[in-house]
Amino acid sequence: MKYLSDQMLIEVYHRAIDLQLDSAFIDLLAAELKEREIRIGQVSA
């Protein structure tokens, strides 16, 4: 995950939700967003 830019991580997170990917993968992305102190409510889809 460290190789993804913040913007790419946000895009991947939103895309994973749109595609209804595995919840464990979405949780992993959400944890990385939290680690980087990116609040999901603040980002635009």
Automatic annotation (TrEMBL):
Pfam families to which the protein is assigned, alphabetical: Sda
Protein name: Sporulation inhibitor A
Species whose genome carries this gene: Brevibacillus reuszeri
